[in-house]
Protein 1
Amino acid sequence: MTDAGSIRVLFVDDDPDDLNAIDAVFSGRNVTVIKASSAEEAFSFFDSNRIDIIFSINLMQGMSGIQLLERVKEQYPDTIRILMTPKADMYLELQLDVINRCELFHIITKPWKEESLQKSVDDAIKRLQITAVLKNAEEPALHDIAQSIEQKDAYTEGHCERISRYALLLADALELPEEMKREIKIGSWLHDCGKIDLPASLLNFEGQLDENQFKIVEMHPLWGADIALQAGLSETVINIIRFHHERFDGSGYPEGIKGNEIPIEARIVGMAETYDIMTSRRPYKEAVSYKEAVDRLTGMRGNKFDPELLDIFLQVLEKERTST
Ligand SMILES: [Fe+2]
């Protein structure tokens, strides 16, 4: 992608009426719409041009849409992939399996609504821009991106900034090398960048997520790590994004790794984030006191958190509190 005016979107659908209707959805917008009526035809466009975003139905003559998107993932990983499928096919098992196999950005239901197509394209453009900016970005640009991600969630302002401060207090106490501390700062800012791919309705959901909704939310560390990988960010930053929801006893997500298998940078940021969430007010909950937060963290010693790391974290928090 070079700029917003050059976004090229390929629609693959064997229903000519639906393909014809696409033009009206994007009229007046800086989007070039390209249409194909089969997977084979879709590939001919990839051969001759860059495609930024591909939408495809699944059931077609010849190669299916899922096979097409899987191949696009392998051959053109920078192209954002979106599946259009009838509501009846939207079983969760299918969704999760296909999301993983094709690394889908979105699934939208057919018949589609104009707004959902436009919203998917807008979200995809945002993701393309974030990936592009992340490449070779300097710290101020990375910080701006972190803030734009933060705005999508109902976090209280300054969440990423505070996490990085707590994480660095711990990193200082551990006397980690300067370069690693810089990576921890950037990883703290970007830890939730995968949330850019989550529907806002799930992010700001009030109350308890059901099992299916939670399974979708659990994907955000993997999606974020994928963004960071494509942007060429360091292994330390990618580890923070990928593993910040793992737990010391192995009951976390996305991979359920435990103990020292969880990179220390991810253990640090996961702890800093939990503390900030506890001590910040959010639209759906009040902040807890410092003492209450310490009690709760202590209750997670050895299950959610690395016990040794937690002891050091509690010491630095206490030191900071008494020195201010
Ligand atoms: Fe997260």
Protein 2
Amino acid sequence: MSHDLSGRLNRYVNDLFAREDDVLRFVRQQTEAQGLPLINLEPNEARLLQLLVMLSGAERVIEIGTLAGYSGIWIARALPPQGALTTIEKSSVHASLARSHFERAGLADKVTVLQGQGLQVLQKLVADAPYDLMFIDADKVSYPNYLEWAAKNLRVGGAVVADNAFWQGNIFNPSTADDHGMADFNQALAEHPQFESTIIAVGDGIALGVKTS
Ligand SMILES: C[S@@+](CC[C@H](N)C(=O)[O-])C[C@H]1O[C@@H](n2cnc3c(N)ncnc32)[C@H](O)[C@@H]1O
């Protein structure tokens, strides 16, 4: 598919199915204004994630990689009244901006932002397992470790969702540590005895695994 056509189709989906409200627009504007990297999900990817949260009936969700809270708002809005999102962010600047955005979105009671390195924070969350869904969108080298955590700490029927599965094509000839992290993650997910999985060709590739045992 040509670049032009895929851009046009993305806009078509965004306009029809993934329209942002004032809060989401504000979060995107602030991400830029505060000098954070513009690496949040696109609306169509976030909408897909939101529907996966709904479809799986998730109540307890873990996200790794909060940034300014953009994807977290989409996730939290899909949760039932008793649902909760715990989102992990290594940068204190990102974490604090995200907290203010969850507040602004009226989601502060549903979302906990934990500041720290993903793998370290996850160790502390083991005590409260199992969880229903894990969304991975942080350091690429740790994706295989995040998958192993998900295998141990999601309930059967729960889902692991990961952004950047295509890694802009760098999974074909991995050279950097990040490239290898993504290629290894995809391979491990595909072969994992506890997951049924695929990659959905939206955005930079959204990997999805359903835990079956
Ligand atoms: C792609 S952005 C997340 C985007 C966010 N999910 C969204 O769509 O709005 C990745 C974030 O992960 C954070 N990060 C990177 N390495 C991390 C680690 N080891 N543990 C926790 N967070 C990390 C970065 O600081 C950055 O804010």
